[in-house]
């Protein structure tokens, strides 16, 4: 059977969408994963009141482990989009509502919004959903009112007081309505999606406890294998995160006492509960490629198992998990030794983590791969908690995105691995920071995901990156900040543009990245006044724009300014650009990890370097980006390994070429280039003297030769920061056998020589009050100590194809440009090993040749500082694109911001080529009706102490912020608000305001609004009762009866008039009314309808309208700034 499975067509993931704590969509969740964001928070008051609950044993208030969890933020839900009458929303579990949102988004992602060729009859929905829903528990609890009454009556409570208590209890629960039954069923999560999105394939949910999501993916894959479906929406949904769920996990001592989920950590003490949804559009790979779908990654194998007769029904079992893992790899047709990332179930419980790690070790060590710590191990639960039925979907999202973006994502909250696991002696390591992911030689990147559930059910999915000839999915933006550019012909115009831009900003997740793309595309380097900003978020951007505008308008505005928060301005004329490349000593562990997160091409040089160095073990990237070090001694050991020339030089070369690739993509024109020591190799490459591949080959060979020289002669180097005339004079007077290897700046030289001579020089310099610093290098470069490497390097260079430089390249030895003769370039590059570096003179000569903007292209910012020391007050700009110990993306954007402010021409299109262009959030039309919902059920009453009237989460108004209900400060403004809701002109065949008598059209629209909760102005006579408005047969009968009661002249009408397929216009026509757009609206609907509106309060919950529009008295009682405490709709 397994051989048959391995021959099946792989399954392509062609669409992804999700909602998780702190994340309003896929891009935000991926950004949070990469940033290592901790998304665990205190239980929101809107979900449940912690002070109402007591501990499981002592009866004391609950401890921290049930005070925190992962909770969804509010998400905009538009009931009209899914033909759900607003009156019924509170009767539908949030899992169903948010499931519709995520499903529609994943379909849009899979199709790019083009549904023309979509065969909906062959689309299925299979989701992992727990059998219970939060609404089921709530509605069931509401039925226990007789039990409360019996207990109170038995206790002798007088009937009047009993009734008061009973009323208070009843007010805490939602009333039953016809939509409550389907609204609380778990299977309707999938059913409602199939219904509303018009899918004709299978729809079902599967409950495998915490393994439900991967169980759903398994069933979905079989749907595709069998040919029953051409696309399946699969994943997991879990918004069941109430006090009952916390109680369940608390009673089995699974929750963390410290309030944090720390998978595989020495400090792990349990899990934290979370909630969320993730869905994937799955297709057979061949079909996806044929139809031009954009592919994220490819599922190759799924394995499942049961634990059999284990210790208990919920105890984890390593042997059971091993079976699932082995079956997955047998199905995939490859072994675990080719997998570079495992997203574990990783709940953070001691027992669970131990059992899982044991199973992983068993499977992953039973291969021919003998080295240690080659596979990353993580768990997204460290960031969002255990999302139960959606847990596997969260893990699959993380693994698929990691493959797609070629990034190893981090796992947080591991200060030290659990020592009992002996992680350091296993194939696994726990990445604390994100890092680029290089593929094994000759193989694609591969990742696997585990998910295990109560009842002994185990699932393991293995997938790989897509490497075929088809389209790849758009990348998700992972930048922690963005670069915003504004240019103008005058300071006044620039200030005005900055102010206008600030005023145009709207709160939206896409706003900052859209603005970055827009302003970068509009960037005009020829404008005299240039402003560049690096912003973390919209509030910061607003502050920066406001400050910059004020400074530009102020008298005496300088010709240029910059600020540490990240904004740069200049009206200085631009100048020629010179590139500078650093040498050995600039390297550091972890360099180059950030740039590939925002520009995929930056990873290419690292791939080239791997090929240039062959199948070395360990590979270069494993030295530069090693397993996380959990002690200072281990950090020091890693740094010392990287400092070896055989590693440092190809590493510096790879990182420098990575940044050079970006410079080329930006089409930055540079007039000259130079390097410091080894950096001269990359400078020649930048001038086209040899290829990138050749540069990396030279770096590798040069590093090996210098390492050999270091073994033959023990040398050292020491930097002295002091006026160079004094240092040189002292060294010369002592007659020591040391060379002045580097003339770095007017205030720094570097000494080189044998170790004993360097030690003697350092002692004498300290006696003179100086402070020499020993450099972390392997030997005495640029001295006769390494003469033995010159000949072999020259011989190696003879086999490299050289070309004349396209721009001048300044040589360290002469501080002058290389001659165009390729023979002399070869000789000079070889001799450079043992010759002194005259960097200070080189920079002076480059400035003299016209260079005004010096860009350091490589690790750290040593040369940037040296340039400033060399040039002093001479007009220049020194820019670093990388800084040790800083956020690499921020440093990169700040470097580009400096270049933009300096007027350097750049084409930013390449930076955005892999990202889907989104609509301008400022131009998006707000929905006519939208509600803001989170994981808690919408409209759930939360009675205050001493009040019998329920309150609820306020409805969302499209022009009100999430936490700012619409303010109406007077009765007049309230009435005006009512009229705007009830009586404005309608679109299409709608009804316009008139003073004529009520007619059929007006009556029908008024009753439909009354019974459904749709605002009248949203109703169009062309709308279908069922498909557009979601009006079922029961509701249609109610509507017909109400119309007849309101308009007796209509007479008895057969209910078939309101058939399922009927439109509002057809109903009006059949009832004898006229359907033109000029038909009058009813001036009065019922006798108590003071503003032509109160009837609606009987169908829609009173709090819904009160909290949306306010009572109009400005007194706080309605929750919108009024204090009267009166229900303005009902009296």
TrEMBL record:
Residues 8-465 form the Ketosynthase family 3 (KS3) domain. It comes from the Bacteria. Gene3D superfamilies: 3.40.47.10, ACP-like, Malonyl-Coenzyme A Acyl Carrier Protein, domain 2. PROSITE patterns: KS3_1, KS3_2. One of its GO terms (biological process) is fatty acid biosynthetic process. Pfam families: Acyl_transf_1, KAsynt_C_assoc, ketoacyl-synt, Ketoacyl-synt_C, PP-binding. Transmembrane segments: none annotated. Keywords: Phosphopantetheine, Phosphoprotein, Transferase. One of its GO terms (molecular function) is 3-oxoacyl-[acyl-carrier-protein] synthase activity. InterPro entries: Ac_transferase_dom_sf, ACP-like_sf, Acyl_transferase_dom, Acyl_Trfase/lysoPLipase, Ketoacyl_synth_AS, Ketoacyl_synth_C, Ketoacyl_synth_N, Malonyl_transacylase_ACP-bd. This is Ketosynthase family 3 (KS3) domain-containing protein. It comes from Mycobacterium simiae.
């Amino acid at each position: 059977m397994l051989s048959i499975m391995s021959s099946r067509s792989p399954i392509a993931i062609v669409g992804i969408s999700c909602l998780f704590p702190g994340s309003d969509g896929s891009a935000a969740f991926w950004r949070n994963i990469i940033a290592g964001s901790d998304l665990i928070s205190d239980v929101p008051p809107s979900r449940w009141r912690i002070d109402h609950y007591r501990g499981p044993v002592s009866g004391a208030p609950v401890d921290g482990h049930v005070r925190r969890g992962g909770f969804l933020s509010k998400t905009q839900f538009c009931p009209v989009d899914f033909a759900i009458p607003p009156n019924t929303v509170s009767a539908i579990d949030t899992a169903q509502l948010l499931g519709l949102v995520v499903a529609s988004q994943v379909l849009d992602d899979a199709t790019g919004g083009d549904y023309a060729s979509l065969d909906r009859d062959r689309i299925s929905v299979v989701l992992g959903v727990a059998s219970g829903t939060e609404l089921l528990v709530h509605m069931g609890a509401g039925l226990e009112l007789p039990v409360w009454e019996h207990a109170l009556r038995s206790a002798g409570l007088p009937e009047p007081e009993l009734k008061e208590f009973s009323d208070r209890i009843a007010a805490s629960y939602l009333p039953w309505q016809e939509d409550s039954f389907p609204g609380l069923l778990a299977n309707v999560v999938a059913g409602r999606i199939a219904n509303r999105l018009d899918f004709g394939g299978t729809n079902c949910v599967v409950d495998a406890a915490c393994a439900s999501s991967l169980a759903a993916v398994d069933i979905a894959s079989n749907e595709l294998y069998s040919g029953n479906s051409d696309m399946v929406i699969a994943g997991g949904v879990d918004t069941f995160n109430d006090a009952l769920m916390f109680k369940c996990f608390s009673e089995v001592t699974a929750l963390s006492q410290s309030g944090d989920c720390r998978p595989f950590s020495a400090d792990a003490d349990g899990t934290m509960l979370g909630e969320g949804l993730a869905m994937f559009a799955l297709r057979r790979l061949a079909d996806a490629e044929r139809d031009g779908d954009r592919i994220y990654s490819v599922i190759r194998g799924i394995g499942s198992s049961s634990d059999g007769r284990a210790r208990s029904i919920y105890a984890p079992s390593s042997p059971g998990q091993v079976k699932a893992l082995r079956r997955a790899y047998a199905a995939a047709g490859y072994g675990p030794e080719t997998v570079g990332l495992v997203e574990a179930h990783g709940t953070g419980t001691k027992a669970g983590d131990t059992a899982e790690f044991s199973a992983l070790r068993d499977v992953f060590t039973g291969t021919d791969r003998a080295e240690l710590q080659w596979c990353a191990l993580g768990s997204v639960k460290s960031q969002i908690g255990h999302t139960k039925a959606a847990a596997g979907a969260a893990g699959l999202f993380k693994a698929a995105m990691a493959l797609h973006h070629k990034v190893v994502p981090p796992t947080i909250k591991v200060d030290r691995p659990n020592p009992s696991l002996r992680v350091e002696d296993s194939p696994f390591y726990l990445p604390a920071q994100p890092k680029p992911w290089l593929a094994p030689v000759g193989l694609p990147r591969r990742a696997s995901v585990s998910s295990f559930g109560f009842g002994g059910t185990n699932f393991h999915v293995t997938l790989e990156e897509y490497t075929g000839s088809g389209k790849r999915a758009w990348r998700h933006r992972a930048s922690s900040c963005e670069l915003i550019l504004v240019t103008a012909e005058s300071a006044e115009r620039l200030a005005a543009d900055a102010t206008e831009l600030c005023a145009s900003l709207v709160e939206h997740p896409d706003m900052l990245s859209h603005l970055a793309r827009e302003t970068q595309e509009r960037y005009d380097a020829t404008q005299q006044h240039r402003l560049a900003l690096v912003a973390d978020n919209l509030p910061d951007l607003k502050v920066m724009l406001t400050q910059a505008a004020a400074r530009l308008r102020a008298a005496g505005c300088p010709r240029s300014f910059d600020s540490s928060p990240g904004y740069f301005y200049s009206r200085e004329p631009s100048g020629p650009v010179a590139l500078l490349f650093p040498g050995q000593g600039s390297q550091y562990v972890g360099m180059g990890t950030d740039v590939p997160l925002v520009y995929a091409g930056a990873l290419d040089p690292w791939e080239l370097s791997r090929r240039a160095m062959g199948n070395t073990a360990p590979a270069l990237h494993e030295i530069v980006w090693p397993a996380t070090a959990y002690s200072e001694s281990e950090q020091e050991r890693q740094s010392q390994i990287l400092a070896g020339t055989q590693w440092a030089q190809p590493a510096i070369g790879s990182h420098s070429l990575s940044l050079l690739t970006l410079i080329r993509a930006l089409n930055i024109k540079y007039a000259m280039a130079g390097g410091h020591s080894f950096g001269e190799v990359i400078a020649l490459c930048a001038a086209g003297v040899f290829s990138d591949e050749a540069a990396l080959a030279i770096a590798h060979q040069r590093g090996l030769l210098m390492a050999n020289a270091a073994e033959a002669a023990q040398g050292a180097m020491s930097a002295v920061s002091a006026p160079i005339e004094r240092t040189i004079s002292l060294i010369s007077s002592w007659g020591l056998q040391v060379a002045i290897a580097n003339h770095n700046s007017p205030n720094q030289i570097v000494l080189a020589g044998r170790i004993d001579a360097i030690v003697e020089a350092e002692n004498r310099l300290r006696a003179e009050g100086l402070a020499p610093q020993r450099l972390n290098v392997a030997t005495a470069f640029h001295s006769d100590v390494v003469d033995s490497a010159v000949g072999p390097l020259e011989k190696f260079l003879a086999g490299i194809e050289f070309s004349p430089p396209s721009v001048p390249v300044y040589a360290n030895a002469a501080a002058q440009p290389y001659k165009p003769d390729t023979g002399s370039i070869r000789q000079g590059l070889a001799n450079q090993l043992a010759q002194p570096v005259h960097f200070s003179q080189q920079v002076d000569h480059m400035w003299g040749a016209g260079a005004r903007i010096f860009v350091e292209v490589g690790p750290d910012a040593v040369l940037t500082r040296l340039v400033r020391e060399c040039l002093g007050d001479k007009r220049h700009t020194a820019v670093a694109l990388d800084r040790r110990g800083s956020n690499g993306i921020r440093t990169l954007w700040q470097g580009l911001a400096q270049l933009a402010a300096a007027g350097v021409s750049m084409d930013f299109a390449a930076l955005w080529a892999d990202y889907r262009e989104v609509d301008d959030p400022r131009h998006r039309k707000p929905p006519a009706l939208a509600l803001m919902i989170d994981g808690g059920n919408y409209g759930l009453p939360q009675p205050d102490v001493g009040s019998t009237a329920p309150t609820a989460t306020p409805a969302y108004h499209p022009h009100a912020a999430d936490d700012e209900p619409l303010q109406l400060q007077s009765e007049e403004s309230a009435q005006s608000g009512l009229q705007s809701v009830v009586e404005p002109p309608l679109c299409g065949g709608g009804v316009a305001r008139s003073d004529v008598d009520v007619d059929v059209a007006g009556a029908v629209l008024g009753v439909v609004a009354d019974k459904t909760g749709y605002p009248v102005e949203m109703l169009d006579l062309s709308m279908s009762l069922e498909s557009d408005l979601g009006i079922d047969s029961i509701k249609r009968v109610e509507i017909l009866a109400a119309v007849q009661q309101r308009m007796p002249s209509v007479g008895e009408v057969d209910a078939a008039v309101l058939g399922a397929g009927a439109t509002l216009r057809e109903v009006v026509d059949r009832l004898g009314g006229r359907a033109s757009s000029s038909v009058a609206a009813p001036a009065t609907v019922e006798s108590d309808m003071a503003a032509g509106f109160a009837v609606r309060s009987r169908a829609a919950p009173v709090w819904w309208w009160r909290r949306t529009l306010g009572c109009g008295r400005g007194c706080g009682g309605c929750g919108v700034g009024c204090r009267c405490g009166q229900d303005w709709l009902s009296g």
